[in-house]
Design brief:
The complex is a heterodimer of chains A (about 280) and B (about 675).
Chain A lengths: L2 E7 L8 H10 L20 E9 L2 E9 L8 H6 L3 E3 L5 E3 L9 H5 L6 E3 L4 E3 L5 H4 L7 H5 L5 E6 L1 H10 L15 E4 L2 H4 L1 E11 L2 E4 L4 E6 L2 E7 L5 E7 L4 E9 L2 E9 L3 E7 L1
Parallel strand pairs in A: 1-9, 10-17
Antiparallel strand pairs in A: 1-8, 2-3, 4-5, 6-7, 10-11, 10-14, 12-13, 12-15, 15-16
Chain B lengths: L1 E4 L3 H8 L5 H4 L11 E4 L5 H5 L4 E2 L6 H15 L4 H7 E2 L1 H9 L9 H8 L3 H12 L4 E4 L15 H15 L7 E2 L35 H4 L18 H6 L3 E4 L12 E4 L9 E5 L3 H4 L4 H8 L5 E6 L11 E4 L8 E4 L17 E6 L12 H11 L3 H5 L4 H11 L8 H7 L1 E4 L13 H5 L30 E2 L3 H6 L27 E4 L25 E4 L2 E9 H6 L7 E6 L2 E10 L6 E3 L43 E8 L9 H18 L7
Parallel strand pairs in B: 1-2, 1-5, 2-3, 4-15, 5-6, 9-10, 10-11, 16-21, 18-20
Antiparallel strand pairs in B: 7-8, 12-13, 13-14, 16-22, 17-18, 18-21, 19-20, 19-22
Classes of the chains: A alpha+beta (about 280), B alpha/beta (about 675).
Bound molecules: iron/sulfur cluster (2 copies).
The site of one iron/sulfur cluster has 15 residues of chain A, from helix 1 and strand 3.
Chain lengths: ~280, ~675
Amino acid sequence: MKKWNMIIDVAECTNCQLCTLSAMDEYVGNDWPGYSAPMPRHGHHWIDIKQKERGQAPMIDIAFAPTMCNHCDNAPCLSKGGDAVNKREDGIVIIDPVKAKGRKDLVESCPYGHIWWNEELQLPQIWTFDAHLLDQGWDKTRGHQACPTGAMRAIKVEDDEMARMARDEALEVMKPEAATKPRVYYRNLWRYSKCFIGGSVATEANGVVDCVEGAAVRLLKDGTQVAATETDNYGDFKFDRLDEGSGAYTVEISGHGRKKTVEAKLGQSLSLGEIRL
Amino acid sequence: MIVSWAADPETTSGSYGAQEGTVRRQWLKNPKLGIKVVHVDPYYNATAQFLPGKWFAPKPTTSPAMAMAIAYVWIKEGLYDKEYVKTHTEGFDKWAAYLTGEEDGIAKTPEWQEKETGVPAKDVRALAREWGSKRVYLAPGGWGNGHGGACRNQTGIQWARVMVCLSAMQGLGKPGCNMGNLQWGCPVDFNFYFPGYSEGGMSGDLENTAMPVALYQRMPQLPTMNSNGQMIPRIFLPEAIYEGKAEGYRWVGKSIEHQFGKFMYPSPGASPVKMLYKYGGSILGTMNNTNRHVRMYQSEQLEFVVNQSIWFEGEAKFADVVLPACTNFERTDISEWAGLGGYGHHGQQQLNHRVIIFQAPAIKPLGESKSDYWIFNEICKRLGLSNYFSEGINELDWVKRLYLASDLPKVISFKKLLKRGYYVVPAEKEKLRAPVSFRWFWEGRKKDVPEAQPLPSDYMDEFLKGLQTQSGKLEFDCNSLKRAKDPERPPIVKYEPSWEGPHSPEFGRYPLQLLTPHSKYSFHTQGDGKSSFLNNIADHRVKVDGWYYWVLRLNAEDAKARGIKKNDLVKIYNDRGAVICAALPTQRLSRGVCHGYESSAVYAPMGEPGKSVDRGGCLNLLTPHKTQTKSTHSLAGAQSIVQVELWDGRIEHMSETFAAMERDATIKQSLRDAHLVPAK
Ligand code: SF4
Ligand code: SF4
C-alpha cells in the first residue's frame, strides 16, 4: 500500500512562504467536512517555516526548515485522541472536526507543537496533508505545487521504498528522540540543526595585509584530529556539521611556514574572525 | 563567477517577476557547473541566503569606493582586458589617473576604501584578483542589469556609473563577461505584441505614457487626459502645495538629454493646484520624508481631496470624499503578467512563460464599491463627457478592443479566450531567439537585440551602430556630462561620500544607517495590512499586544547595547519622524546598520499626524526626499540615518516639517499682531 510522505530540502528553501500562503488560501474560510474545519485567518501556522541564523557577520548563513504536522505513524495524538483522531490507510492523520470538539487536551500531546487550538470553534486542528484534494485526484499538495524550488515535495510510495530512500539519501526527521515515526523527512537538515567553526586567515608582509590561500587548517577535539581543510582565496575556512554545544575545540593553522593555534568553545556556530599568521 | 552587487531578486522578484527567476538561479547551485557567487550588500539578503557565497558588507552608500579599489587593483596588477578598453571604450586613462592618485594625490587603494566601507582591504584585493582572472557576470540591482539596488540611495549615480566602468574593464559582451543574475533574458517570444502597464490603456495620452511606442498605432483612441501639461512629481508635491512653488527634474527615459529638462511649478500660465484626485493610499508608505505629504493634506491651499481607493488605508483617511473602488477580482479586465510596456521594455523576459489573462470577475463588487471605469464614467456623465470618455462602449468592449489591438486574434478567438481565461504565448523558435546582450557590441556588429531604444535619432554614427553615447563607445570620460558641466556629476565618476551618512554632522545623534529596500512579501503597498495573510509572516509583521507591527532588523550587538530583544517594540526616529516597530536582532547586518522594508500600507499615527509616532510602519516618514544631485531626478531615499531605542510608550514626536510649519505660523501671527506685512 502506497502512503504519503513529505520530503523537504532545507538547502533549497528560500523562506518565500508560498507554501504557508497556499495553506492559508486553502483552509481559511473553507470548510472541508470530514477533513477540517476552517482555519482562523490569523494566529495559526499549520505550515510554519522555522529559521536558523548561524555565525557572526560577515561569516554567516541562514537555513529555513518548513514544519507541519508530521502525520506520525506512532503518534501520541492518535493514542490519546480515541476516535477523535484517525490514521488513514495512506498514512495521513486526521483530527475529526466533529468528534474532536472541545479536545484541548490534544494540543499538548503533539511533541512538535503542530496541533493548533481554534478558540472560536473549540477545535484542535492540524494541516491535513491536503487530504481532501488528494482524495479528489490531486497528485501533490498545494505547498508542493506552489514551491518554486522543489524544496517541498509530497510523494506517495510504499513504506519500504521510503525507508530505503531515507537511508540512501541520508534523510532525517525532526526530533527522532520522540520516536513518533514522522512521515515528514528532511534533506540537508544539518544546515538547520548543526553548527560550524570558521575563520579567516591573513598575514602581513611589507606592511600589507593579505588573505592566505591554501593554509592547512586542522580541527582537534581532546588532542585528536576530527577534521582538516584548507583556506580558500579569501583565507576563509569552515568546519561544519558539528554538534551544537559540543564544547572545546582546537583549531590549528599552518601556512607560510608559520603555525597558529586557536582555542574555541562551541555553543552555537562560531566565526573566529580574522586570524593573523 | 557571478558578482551580485546590491542585487536581491529573491526579495524584489527581480521586479514584478514573482518567483520565476528563482528556478534559473537554482542552476547555479549545481556543483558540476563550478560557478561561484559572491554577494556585495550591506544586508545578507535573501539571494545570498539562497546562493551561498562570500559576503562583503560595505556600509550603506559606500560601495562605489569598494568598486574603485577593485579597478585600482586591476590597473596595478594588469588584471583587465586592455585590448577591449582600447577598442571599445573612451577616456580610460583619465579615470585611471584618478584611481591611481595622479589626479588628486589619493590612490584609491583597497586600504583607502576600507576607511569608507569597513570592508577589509585584504578581502577587496582577493576579490579583485579572483574577478580579474575569471570570466564574470556582474549583477547589479534586482534585474541583474540595473533597476533598484544601491541606485536608490544618495550615491546611486556613482554606483551605477562605476558598475558600468568595471564591466567595461572586463569586456562587456565578451562570452562570460556581462551583466545579469539570471532574472532577465528568458527566450520568450518578443515579437508577440500585447501592451504593458505603462502603455496608457485608454487615455489617449501620447506624451506621458509609452503609448506612442506601439499601442496607439494599433488602437487609436480619444485623448481624455488632462491637457494643460503642468506636472509635479509626487516627491515634490508637498512643497508645490504648501509653499506654492516647486522645481526640479522629471524622469523621462526617452533620451539622455531629457533628464536635463527642468519642470517648474506653477508652470508658466498654469493655474495653481487646488484639488487633488488621488487614486489609492500609497504615498505615505512609498514616497520619502512623507510627513511633508501629511502636512500637504492638511494644508489650506489644498481645498479638496478625493480618494478613489480599494482600501481605506494609508492617506485615504485624509480625503474629503472617498470613492470606494472594487478590486480586480470584482471587475472585468485583461492583462499580461510582468508586461511593463515602456518602463522596462520586454519585462516579460523575467518569466519562464508569457501568460496573458482575461480577468473575469470572480464575485460582484463588495459593499458599495464599484469598478474604476464605472466611477469615472459616472463623473463624466455629470460633466456631459460620458460618450467622449467611454467612446460609447463598456468595460468588456474595451477588453475586446485591447484584445484586437494585440497579436492575440492571430492565435485565439475572443470567445475562446473568454472561455479559457488565459493564453500562454509559446516560446520563440530556437533559431529566432534573441542573441546575447552586448555580444554585437563586443563583436563590433550592428545592434541585433530586440530593444526599441535608443531611437534612431540617438545614434551619432549610423542607426544601430554603437551605443547611445556620443562616441558610440563605453565612456569612462562621459561626453554628455562634459556638456552638462555639473559639479556633482563630473565627466569621470569620482567617489563623493553620501550627504547623509557617517560623514553627516548629525551622525552623532543618529548613529545608525537605515536601509529601506523594497519589501519581500508585499509589493509596494499591495498585500500589506488590511488583515491579510501576510500579517501571519513573522518576517513581514509581528503581533505585539494585539497590533501587527512592521519589522525592524538591527545588528545583534547594536540591539544588545540598547537592551533590545527580539519582538521588543522600538522607536526608530530622526528629525523627520518616528515609527514604532518590532525589533529583530540579527547577524545579517554589520554593526551600525539597520534594515526595514519601505512601503507599509498602514499609516497609524498614535496622536496628531506629523506630531506623533506612527505604528503602521511607514519608514518612509524617516527617509530623505532630496535628490541625489541637484541636476537630475534621482531619488535618494533608500538610506537614512536614524536612532533606535526601546520604546517608552510616549506618542509625541514633533517632525521637522510640522515644527517648521508651527514656526512659520508663529512668525506670521506676530507680524499680523504688529500689523506688518511680510517682506516680499
Ligand atoms: S505531528 Fe503531532 S499532530 Fe501530527 S501526527 Fe505527529 S503527534 Fe500527531
Ligand atoms: S514554498 Fe518552498 S521555498 Fe518557499 S518557503 Fe515553502 S518550502 Fe520553502
